[in-house]
Amino acid sequence: MPSGKLRPPPSARPPHIIAYGGVEGWVAGRFLGEGSVAAPGYWAVTGVAADDVLNVRVEPSANAVIVGALSPYETGIENLGCSEPADSPTRWCRIRSSGFEGWVAGRFLRQQ
């Protein structure tokens, strides 16, 4: 599992974080295909009912242990990278917020 302590290399143009095959890293934007979009630095929760929460899980799986929860109005959620595990149709994003780290379903996040 990635450490979550990746830091971008120094450069004039900001690099992009990517996740592929369970590995996270940085890549210069010029190497990304046309139409690629840089990942936002921070997320906000979206699409969660006012009386519900967005579960944060220890692994990118709906069956993984829940390590925390985000309110439906949570903002300032740090983006640690997203990926689509081979065994899941869901895009999962690794986040850090409110003193904990974990994975959430990407469909409930929007760029802040």
What key attributes describe this structure?
112 residues, mainly beta, SH3 type barrels, five-stranded antiparallel sheet, two-stranded antiparallel sheet
Q: What is the overall shape?
A: globular
CATH superfamily of the domain at 39-111: SH3 Domains
Fraction of residues in H or I helices: under 10%
Biggest sheet architecture: 5 strands, antiparallel
Q: What value does the Rg take, in angstroms?
A: 14 Å
Low-confidence spans: none
Enter the CATH topology name of the domain at 39-111. Answer: SH3 type barrels
Question: What is the mean pLDDT?
Answer: 78
Strand order of the largest sheet: 8-7-6-3-9
Number of strands: 9
Under CATH at level 1, the class of the domain at 39-111 stands as Mainly Beta
- Could you state the order of secondary-structure elements as H and E? EEEEEEEEE
Helix and strand composition category: mainly beta
The number of helical elements comes to 0
What proportion strand? Answer: 35-45%
Concise summary:
The chain has 112 residues and is mostly beta strands. The chain has no helices and nine strands. It has a domain of 73 residues: SH3 type barrels (Roll).
Structural notes for this entry:
Helices cover 0% and strands 40% of the residues. It is mainly β. The chain has a domain at 39-111: SH3 type barrels (Roll). The chain is globular, with a radius of gyration of 14 Å. It starts with 15 loop residues before the first strand and ends with a strand.
